[in-house]
Amino acid sequence: MISKVGKRIIKYIFILSGLIFLVLSCKIAFVGGRKGENMRPPKLYRELLENQFEYENLSLKFSADLFIGEEKQEFSGIIRMKKDTAIWISLRSYNIEGARMLITKDSVKFINRLDKTYYSGDFVFLTNRFEMDMDYNMIQAIITNSFFFYPQPEDTSKAVSNFKQCYDSSLYCMSSISQRKYVKFYVDEKNPERWERKLEKEISDTVGVGPGETVFQTNEFVFQFVKVLPELFRINDMFLENYIQQQSLYVEYDKQYLVGNQYFPHQINIEITTPRFAPRLVINIESLTIDAESMSLPFKISDKYEKIEL
Length: 310
Description:
Order of helices and strands: HEHEEEEEEHHHEEHHEEEEEE
Number of helices: 7
Low-confidence stretches: 9-26, 214-218
Helix content: 25-40%
CATH class: Mainly Beta
CATH superfamily: Lipoprotein localisation LolA/LolB/LppX
Number of strands: 15
CATH topology: outer membrane lipoprotein receptor (LolB), chain A
Shape: globular
C-alpha cells in the first residue's frame, strides 16, 4: 500500500513531468542575450557562419502584408527551398494561387495566373521590378536569416577585413563603411547641395560617369550595415544602400523561435526604397518543416499564357 505522502509525491511528479513536457514541446522565443565586448568583423563573420541556419530541404508557410503608400494587400504563401539549388514560391489569396515562381542559380521562372502571363529567363526580371541587383544567394540568405555580401566580392577574406566595427548598445555591429564617414559625407542634412556636388565629383573621378548618366552598381558607393544578436549570432537587422542609384534595402528579423535545436525568426520585415517606389513587406512565418523527405517543386507553363517581354 502506498501512503498518503507517497501518493502526494507521485501526484507532484506527474504534474511536474506534464509541465516539463509542455515546455519542451512548445516553440521557445528568444528574448535577448547580453552583449559582451565589441567583436571585430572577422570574428563576428566567423560566428555568423558557424551559427547559420542548417538545412537541406526547407518548407515555410506564411502570411504577409504588403504596404505601398497608403494601400495594403494581404496574402499568404508557401516557400520551398533546396539549399543552394532552388527556391519555389507560391502566392495565394483566399487560398487561391495567384502566382508561382521558381528561382535557381541562373534562372527565374514566373507565372501570373490572374492575367495568364509568364516569364522565363535570368535575374533581370527581378532586378527590373525591385530596381536592385539581386541574385540567388541574396534571396536565399534573406529568407533564412543568413549573412550575405552586397555586392558579392571576388575575395571574401579581403571584403571581411575591410568591414568596420559600428556601435550599438545591445547588438554586435559591423559595416562596410565607418559610421563617422557615413555621417560626415552621406548624411549631410544641413547642406544637401554640398553632398550632391561631392557625390557627383567622386562618381566622376572613380568611375568616369558624368552628371545625369546612370551606373547600376559601383562597389565604392554600395554600403552595408549588419547588426547581430548576442549569444545566437543570428542577424537582427541589415541595411544596404546604393548612393548612385538612391536605393536601399532594410531587412529586420523579429521573434526568434527554437525549431529543433536551431532558431528561426517568426517575422521578417523588408523595406525597399527607390526613386520610384517604397514598398514594405511584413512576412509572418506560420509553420516550418526542415529536411522534408519528399519536396516537389512543380512548375508548368500553360501554352495559353502570354510571355512577359522586358
